[in-house]
Amino acid sequence: MNERRKQGILLLFPVAVLLMGIIFTTALFYHTYRQIAYQHISAFSEIILETSPEAEPQLLSGLKGYYSMSEQEIVKNNYLGKYGYRAEEFCKGIPTYTFILPVMLFFMVSGAFVLAAWLFHRRSQKRIVDLTEYLERVNIGAGETLIQTQEDDFSRLQDEIYKTVTTLYQTREAAVSARKNFAENLANIAHQLKTPITAAFLSLQLMKKEAANEYADRIERQLDRLNRLEESVLMLSKIDAGTLLLKHEKVDLYTALNLAAENLNDILQDSHIFIEILENGCIEFFGDLEWTMEAFINLMKNCMEHSQPGGIVYCEYSGNPLYAEIRIWDEGTGFDEEDLPHLFDRFYRGKRAVGNGIGIGLALARSIFELQNGTIIAYNRRNGGACFEIRLYSH
């Protein structure tokens, strides 16, 4: 409340100065006008009496008539005009300060207004800067309490900011805790699945040794799929829990792409598909070679699955001071437009999905790139085919 009173006084001060100046100037001009009028009439009367002493009775009678005239009659009177006299010829004896004072008053009032506006702006600017710096510290994770030091027009805003920040802190902590619990539960489920899956594989191998049949092969394919699902779920749980530790070392993109292609040699030979990596010199980024290679493998496999026998999966890379860019594309039919917004969602299988995938490869690739300060997008090329574009930023 004290601060508001100060601001109110600060705003009323120039108004008060202006009113006082107007009252003072009006009184001064009125006093000056009466004094000058009196001196002029007195001097005129003295001149008449010096030249014609016998005219004193007529002069006194004229003065009485002057006092009996109304103000409007005096203002409209222009009797001396017919003799060639003008009003400005009678403006003698007016003090200089009657002209200087209004100018001084103007500058005083203007200065008071400017000073008040500057002080008010400075106070407001300081409060805005304080609140902005507080939000900046909150954004970088430097949690602290916003102390209420003064009561002003920003106090309500400050209270609401503090309430909002407190609520966001609580919501974030709850979300982090819930995500951690979910990741832990997911990891426990994946570990629990590992034991029966392994046991089922061993039993299946014994069954196949005694009597191989087509049903055993079907069961084996489903167990393989279930095993991949368990491994993927375990991997995603580590990512969610923040326990997947990635290295931070120089990685050559050409090397990473070639290693990923080598891991797909068997699949490439069976499907008669080729991978062509367009060399562009040595371009490096800071990350984890093994996990980057794993992400590239998932993208290449996706392109292979949508390529015709004899088709080519292309890979190219480039770099600039801000980021390294990698593009992987095929010559297939491309993505369905309805699938594009969901391609990187977990367990999502598009309309043109092939094979027995579980819809986790693209989601895993995106998580790996994001953990290395990167981004990935997917789109259809104008000339046909699907394309993945990855950017790995320097900082």
Automatic annotation (TrEMBL):
Stored SMART domains: HATPase_c, HisKA
UniProt membrane topology term: Multi-pass membrane protein
Alphabetical UniProt keywords: Kinase, Membrane, Phosphoprotein, Transferase, Transmembrane, Transmembrane helix, Two-component regulatory system
EC number(s) on file: 2.7.13.3
Membrane-spanning parts: 9-30, 99-120
GO MF annotation terms: kinase activity
InterPro entries named in the record: HATPase_C_sf, HATPase_dom, His_kinase_dom, HisK_dim/P_dom, HisK_dim/P_sf, HssS/ArlS-like, Sig_transdc_His_kin-like_C
Histidine kinase domain: residues covered: 188-395
Catalytic activity: ATP + protein L-histidine = ADP + protein N-phospho-L-histidine
Subcellular location: Membrane
Entry protein name: histidine kinase
Species the sequence originates in: Claveliimonas bilis
